[in-house]
């Protein structure tokens, strides 16, 4: 098969590219490199530096089909930033996806896998775990932008028969077990790499945002899903959308608190993690844990890296071997 991956130079997108290649598929990557890295795209994979806001340039790439599907990862993804600059997030994420979907319609692309988010569940009726049927109430403009795109895909299906998989995943973490790719955000905002860097002495004390949540230890609880397991779910989702669109929550189904993540990093690294309490961040719910039963039942998917220590081990190896990220 031949697939186009937008945002394929980013964290999750680059791991999805590896999964597609490992499965024997041909891949083309489109990315504007605003947050991704050219070095994250494997050698030999065709790459186009294109911004999805550029309709003509994007259309010219999609016209180079045929494609068996498009996997769409390209987006701004920071909850906190979206609270500070909401209209930029809403505009950027929505318009880029709208352009892509319309272009897919024009060029006869029939299958789209969309990188959605658990941030849709800002205040779910059922907190632990969260099924796909939970009420959708985004707690941030970032989550709202993803919901808007899900609705675009709904209408693309209803009117044009474009089948899609909306994958609402929780906290992507870890790194490729073979060391081919990893996490490199600038600035880094994700808890596991920040905690590892604090343990390795590469940064000052970790800030723990909120210690008064109604959880078992007062810190936020999140469902961490290894990025390789997440990429595998995207491959499996492609097989499900030959005849129908689907929506899946993707997580391990077990939540770990921020303090438990710190303890895991200390176990795996053998180092103490300096940390200090900080105020809550706007838009952060206390608890986000996935019910992935639908994905498991439909596709046979099961995580290979189901516990936090396994996730941290791969992330630690990447941080140690790539102290400067892709820049090194």
From TrEMBL:
GO terms for molecular function: UDP-glucose 4-epimerase activity. Pathway: Carbohydrate metabolism; galactose metabolism. It comes from the Bacteria. The keyword Disulfide bond does not apply. GO terms for biological process: galactose catabolic process via UDP-galactose, Leloir pathway. It catalyses: UDP-alpha-D-glucose = UDP-alpha-D-galactose. Keywords: Carbohydrate metabolism, Isomerase, NAD. It is an enzyme of class 5 (isomerase). Its EC number is 5.1.3.2. InterPro entries: Epimerase_deHydtase, NAD(P)-bd_dom_sf, UDP_G4E. Its cofactor is NAD(+). Residues 4-251 form the NAD-dependent epimerase/dehydratase domain. CDD domains: UDP_G4E_1_SDR_e (cd05247). NCBIfam families: galE. Belongs to the NAD(P)-dependent epimerase/dehydratase family. Homodimer. This is UDP-glucose 4-epimerase. It comes from Gluconobacter aidae.
């Amino acid at each position: 098969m031949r697939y186009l991956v937008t945002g394929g130079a980013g964290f999750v997108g680059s791991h999805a590219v590896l999964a597609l290649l490992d499965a024997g598929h041909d891949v083309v990557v489109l990315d504007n490199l605003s947050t991704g890295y050219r070095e994250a795209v494997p050698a030999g994979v065709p790459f186009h530096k294109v911004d999805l806001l550029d309709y003509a340039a994007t259309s010219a790439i999609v016209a180079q089909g045929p494609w068996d599907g498009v996997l769409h990862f390209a987006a701004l993804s920071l909850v906190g930033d979206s609270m500070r600059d909401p209209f930029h997030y809403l505009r950027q994420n929505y318009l880029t996806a709208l352009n892509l979907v319309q272009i897919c319609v024009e060029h006869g692309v029939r299958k789209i896998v969309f990188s959605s988010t658990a941030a849709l569940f800002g205040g779910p009726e059922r907190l632990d775990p969260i099924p796909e049927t939970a009420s959708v109430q985004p707690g941030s403009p970032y989550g709202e932008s993803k919901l808007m795109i899900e609705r675009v895909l709904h209408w693309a299906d209803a009117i044009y028969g474009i089948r899609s998989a909306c994958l609402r995943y929780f906290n992507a973490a870890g790194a490729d077990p073979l060391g081919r790719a990893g996490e490199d955000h600038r600035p880094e905002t994700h808890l596991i790499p920040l905690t590892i860097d604090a343990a390795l002495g590469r940064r000052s004390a970790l800030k723990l945002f909120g210690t008064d949540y109604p959880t078992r230890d007062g810190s936020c609880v999140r469902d961490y899903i290894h990025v390789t397991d997440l990429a595998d779910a995207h491959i499996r989702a492609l097989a499900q959308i030959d005849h129908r669109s689907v929506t899946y929550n993707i997580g391990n189904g077990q939540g770990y608190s921020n303090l438990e993540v710190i303890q895991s990093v200390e176990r795996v690294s053998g180092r103490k993690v300096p940390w200090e309490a900080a105020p809550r961040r706007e838009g952060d719910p206390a608890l986000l844990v996935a019910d992935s039963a639908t994905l498991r039942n439909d596709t046979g998917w099961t995580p290979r890296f189901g516990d936090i220590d396994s996730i941290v081990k791969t992330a630690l190896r990447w941080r140690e071997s790539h102290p400067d990220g892709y820049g090194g």
